[in-house]
């Protein structure tokens, strides 16, 4: 009997939870038992809200969440409303007042203080006292007697006194006494119509019949989710002797140099044991020799799978050492999460259902017809057996948690778009429930809607099309979409200049291209990354492909990290500016500026000042950093910049100081036509600030 | 025990229903038991969908519902999808194929055949056969052997044969036989790669793991919901002897004349018994004399309430007679639904909780401080007692159903914005469940979001701001919003030129104003209405207010319905054109055209031709009706019209015939610069068609 009753209670509880999530019903979905409801306030067009509340929006600890909505009801009475917020481990809601902006639009703000998933919603109720007071004063103004109204007011005060604590209760009690004492209607009106009483009454409304909107999800991430400079390296290729691999411990000597350049995240491709079966040779060839080291993406061997570290890297012990060394340099470690297996992975024998088989029983290689990837078995999320699928999800969660327990809080996820999107939604939510500090970067280079869906599913950061956006106008268009469209609510683009798989064709232009792409990556987004070798302007190409010759994926590389022509000073400068200027640490504060030129991109990042209550957008900006950059590495250009001066507090005709933030050199200017010469073989860019003289 | 088990089952069923309504879960709302799911296709940005699926969209029987969505999944396999539709009394879904348009956007169409509420959704699944076939052909093209692929194909054919009926099963069986017989890989490939087999396999997919979107609501109304010409009259004022009231039977003599003018709906203000207490006198004065007839909006007396007909109108019997007479003239009857009560209404004694009381126990009059309406008690939807509130909703539903049973299928609802919006959502859904033919017109003149919310709650038609849109540009802007924004999905504007409460100031210009406002109302929307007296160009004003002098609300009026200067011939012509031209019977097909002039509005209504698959908007139009109208009743204007010729199939340089649809006069034109003279004292408008010569 108990079991049955519990079952009823649980199902009923689920139904109630569901109802809470949905909030007050809309027209078509009104439940039959809503007959006679008093919860009749309409709350709609809530911002932010993604796809009708199906996905979480993202913010950072310390941010202020701005919430707005259309709120109205039948009749002409006044309303009041609050934003409600609670973290996923809290029972009680925090609340912040909303205010009527215009035309039934309301807005409110609440500060985000904890790195956790949250829910937020809106609750609105009738401002009975304010409505009554307005009516009273209108009648008094019209010379109408108000004995009935005063009697009503007294009842409302008595009811409020009973539910109100503290100082407000005293204020209400005083008003009641003042009515008692009043020797004329005029005195009584004065006793109940004051502003302080109004405020006290509004702070303590009867919310029994309030309408609550459905609950919406919000991820509040830590700062590193929004701001970071990533450096990717293959730990086995950090030696000084050609052909000689390094262990993780041996690779640590490089960290001081990376830290000195100002990077904040060191990201390692897979560090797990590498399979032997069908191991790939140099330059992705099929027949490896005995001394070929294999691709780290061929994960798994006798030595273990995704929860192990390759013996040739020094195993788990050296891994822990490396992670601590990274942290001692003030950086964080990120590792790769690539869901695939070499034929030698322990999963293959233990969980045959996780791999797709041909009718003859053999496991199918990864392929993209007619190409075949014989050293990798893709994992199959679609086995007929639901238990096998559930066990796979469980195992993958276990793998991530193993590394989280070992101190890894950042995962770069390989090819997430070839795994089910709901799997990512589940995995990320599961991990972040107990470990909200964990960051997931989506390495999806695929169709735009799929990339967006992965971000909506919960990825903290995302790779972008940056590498293939080269022209001025396409850069402007793409970054407007990333930072000013609805995408800014959930998609944080991490701009990689290059990756082990992407050696962009524009790098054929050599050093000037590396310079300009570094500046773009470091200033267009608060998140950017390079793959090692970038600082040395490496661009040797495998045939005519977008791939590196002698890719580190298949062989040990050795480099002179201080080779002539390197751009380490530039990267150091850029990372210094990013640390010094808070504006460069924010994501959605990018705004393009007008420029008269054919190749020059001109933009600024600044801190938002006061918000326009109508639009919720900043009405003014401060501490702006301007970037003007010639995006063509082959042709010098004189550009006339037209900074929007009034929005940073400088009049169109006022003089101001323009300071080059890299050199510190300043010049005086007046007006919004500023000539600059941007030469790819000299300085193709200018990063500057403007200040009133 | 049975009770408990039933309870478990019922609650669980509710949870499942709820899950169905929500469809496949999004990221944040993934239930814990989703681990390992195969329902991983993402379906989002569905159009049409209002406020995340909270409100029904509206269509008309015979319409084609166009549904589009972003549909995609992990990996690179092909997908397939259908639109699903069922009426609210049907168990089985109808389905129509969707097609990939572009960039993961899919679209499909399904014809609406029944006047009922419906639900629609989208179901998508992996096109396993198509994906397999693509891979096979790529490998064959690359010269790779495909024994494994052919073995897989055979298994897929066998599985399909087992689930497929009819001709497709035979086609699949033939393919299996052909593989058996094949004497080479080439022959086997030929046997399984044909287009007819592909179509048969796609018609019979395995949908066990299909993803279904949440269910969305759709009201399919009858034609009169979208197209109608309304005529409002006070039945007691249809006599020929001054001061003498008419009964409903006596008023029927007017119906032939109204039908001859081409109207389709005769709408009567409240016909219920009128209260005596605090009855209003002529011109809304406070002290009525014994022979004052009272306002029909002071509903309820000893003779009955909302379910009765005033004795002086002839009671229910004459009402039935009048309704039949309206229908005999080929028109429909609409009545008023005004939720308020005179102090003498039976509700006041029977249901005191439905009225708001002052602290001294007296019932509160309607008021809009400092104004008071002593002849009316507003109904209170907010009593503390939930049972009293539920009883009120029940009673109001009963009232509507009483009239529906008496043959009334159209209700004009008075001031719905002063009653809870969820009440209307409930009431309309309740009535339309068994009586989907019932039409509700919302008489709300209030803030824009409230007007929209009432339409979203389910009102079939809505009053608009038309009466206060006078300038060319504001008309253009307002009607673009009404017919081209999201509002077209749920809001059907019924353009009243005047009402008993609205005698617009622009009518001071006299007959030319009546002419031009008649043309605008009859051609901008498929729904329009006049209040009787309009055809006589009545504009006598109470003081400087927007109200009629000697308003029929408070006294008996007698008119000469054929008085000189009347515009009955114009109204007859306009209604004739509306009947003859299907384009004028549609609502969201209004498109403004360019015109060189200061006061002339130029637009067309046409029938949509083929749709652009990308936008879902018509790419061509046919049977267009053009209207050019000078909206200033005081100044003649020569306007140069610039009709968009190519969209109706006429080249920019081709000759065409321009036919005045009122006079039948035609002229030849060439090019998109057509001069017309629009004179308020002659003909201030031109309604015409264009046809290739």
Question: What do you see in this structure?
Answer:
The structure is a homodimer of 693-residue chains. With 693 residues, chain A is of the alpha/beta class. Chain A folds into 4 domains: 1-34 and 129-204, no CATH class; 39-127 and 207-221, Immunoglobulin-like (Sandwich), CATH 2.60.40; 230-580, TIM Barrel (Alpha-Beta Barrel); 590-692, Immunoglobulin-like. Chain A is 29% helix and 23% strand. Chain A contains 16 helices and 30 strands. In chain A, the strands form 6 sheets. In chain A, strands 1, 2, 3, 4, 5, 6, 7, 8 and 9 form a 9-stranded mixed β-sheet that branches. An 8-stranded parallel β-sheet of chain A has the order 19-18-17-12-11-10-21-20. The longest helix of chain A has 21 residues, at 2-22. The first copy, chain A, is globular, with a radius of gyration of 31 Å. At the A-B interface, helix 1, strand 1, helix 2, helix 3 and helix 11 of A face helix 1, strand 1, helix 2, helix 3 and helix 11 of B.
- Intertermini distance of chain A: 82 Å
- Poorly predicted runs of chain A are 24-29
CATH C-level of the largest domain in chain A: Alpha Beta
* Number of DSSP E strands of chain A: 30
Query: Under the CATH scheme, which architecture of the largest domain in chain A would be assigned?
Result: Alpha-Beta Barrel
In quaternary terms, these chains amount to homodimer
Biggest interface in this structure?
Answer: A-B, 93 and 91 residues
Domain count of chain A: the total is: 4
Q: What number is the mean pLDDT of chain A? A: 93
Largest sheet report of chain A? 9 strands, mixed
* Structural class category of chain A: alpha/beta
CATH topology assignment of the largest domain in chain A = TIM Barrel
Helix share, percent of chain A: 25-40%
Q: Tally the helices of chain A.
A: 16
Please indicate the percent range of residues of chain A in DSSP E strands (runs of 2 or more): 15-25%
Rg calc of chain A: 31 Å
CATH H-tier superfamily of the largest domain in chain A: Glycosidases
Q: What shape does the CA trace of chain A take?
A: globular
């Amino acid at each position: 009997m108990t079991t049955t009753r519990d079952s009823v209670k649980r199902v009923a509880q689920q139904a109630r939870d569901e109802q809470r999530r949905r909030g007050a019903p809309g027209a078509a979905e009104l439940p039959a038992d809503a007959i006679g409801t008093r919860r009749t306030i309409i709350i709609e067009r809530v911002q932010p809200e993604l796809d009708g509340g199906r996905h979480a929006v993202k913010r950072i600890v310390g941010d202020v969440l701005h919430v707005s909505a259309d709120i109205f009801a039948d009749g002409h009475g006044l309303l009041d409303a609050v934003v409600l917020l609670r973290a996923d481990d809290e029972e009680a809601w925090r609340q912040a007042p909303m205010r009527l902006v215009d035309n039934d639009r309301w807005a409110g703000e609440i500060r985000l203080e904890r790195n956790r998933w949250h829910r937020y919603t809106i609750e609105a109720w009738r401002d009975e006292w304010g409505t009554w007071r307005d009516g009273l004063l209108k009648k008094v103004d019209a010379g109408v007697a108000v004995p009935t109204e005063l009697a009503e007011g007294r009842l409302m005060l008595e009811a409020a006194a009973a539910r109100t604590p503290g100082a407000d209760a005293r204020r209400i009690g005083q008003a009641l006494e003042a009515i008692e004492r009043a020797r004329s209607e005029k005195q009584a009106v004065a006793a109940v119509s004051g502003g302080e009483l109004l405020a006290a009454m509004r702070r303590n409304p009867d919310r029994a019949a309030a309408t609550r909107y459905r609950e919406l999800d919000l991820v509040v991430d830590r700062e590193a989710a929004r701001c970071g400079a990533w450096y990717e390296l293959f730990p086995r290729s950090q030696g000084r002797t050609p052909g000689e691999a390094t262990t993780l411990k041996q690779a640590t000597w490089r960290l001081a140099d990376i830290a000195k350049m100002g990077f904040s995240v060191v990201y390692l491709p897979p560090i797990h044991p590498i399979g032997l079966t069908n191991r790939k040779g140099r330059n992705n060839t099929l027949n490896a020799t005995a001394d070929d080291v294999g691709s780290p993406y061929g994960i798994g061997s006798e030595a273990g799978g995704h929860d192990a570290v390759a013996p040739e890297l020094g195993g788990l012990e050296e891994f822990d050492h490396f992670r601590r060394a990274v942290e001692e340099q003030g950086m964080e470690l990120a590792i790769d999460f690539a869901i695939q297996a070499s034929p030698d992975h322990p999963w293959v024998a233990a969980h045959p259902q996780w791999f797709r088989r041909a009718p003859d029983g053999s496991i199918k290689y990864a392929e993209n017809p007619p190409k075949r990837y014989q050293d990798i078995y893709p994992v199959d999320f679609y086995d007929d057996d639901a238990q096998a699928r559930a066990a796979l999800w469980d195992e993958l969660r276990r793998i991530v948690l193993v590394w989280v327990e070992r101190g890894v809080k950042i995962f770069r996820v390989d090819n997430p778009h070839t795994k089910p999107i709901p799997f990512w939604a589940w995995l990320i939510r599961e991990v972040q429930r107990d470990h909200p500090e964990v960051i997931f970067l989506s390495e999806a280079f695929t169709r735009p809607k799929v990339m967006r869906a992965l971000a909506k599913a919960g990825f903290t950061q995302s790779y972008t099309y940056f590498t293939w956006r080269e022209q001025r106008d396409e850069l402007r268009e793409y970054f407007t979409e990333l930072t000013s469209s609805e995408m800014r609510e959930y998609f944080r683009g991490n701009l990689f200049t290059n990756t082990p798989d992407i050696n962009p064709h524009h790098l054929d232009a050599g050093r000037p291209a590396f310079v300009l792409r570094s500046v773009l990556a470091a200033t267009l987004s608060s998140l950017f990354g390079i793959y090692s070798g970038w600082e040395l302007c490496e661009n040797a190409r495998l045939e005519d492909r977008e791939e590196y010759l002698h890719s580190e994926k298949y062989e040990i590389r050795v480099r002179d990290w201080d080779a002539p022509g390197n751009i380490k000073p530039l990267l150091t400068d850029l990372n210094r500016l990013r640390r010094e200027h808070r504006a460069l640490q924010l994501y959605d504060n990018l705004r393009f500026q007008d420029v008269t030129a054919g190749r020059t991109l001109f933009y600024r990042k600044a801190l938002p000042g006061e918000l326009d209550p109508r639009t919720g957008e900043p009405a003014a900006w401060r501490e702006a950093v301007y970037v003007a950059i010639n995006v063509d590495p082959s042709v010098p250009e004189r550009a006339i910049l037209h900074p929007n001066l009034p929005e940073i507090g400088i009049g169109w005709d006022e003089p101001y100081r323009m300071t080059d933030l890299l050199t510190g050199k300043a010049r005086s200017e007046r007006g919004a036509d500023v000539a600059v010469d941007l030469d790819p073989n000299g300085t193709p860019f200018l990063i500057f600030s403007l200040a009133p003289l």
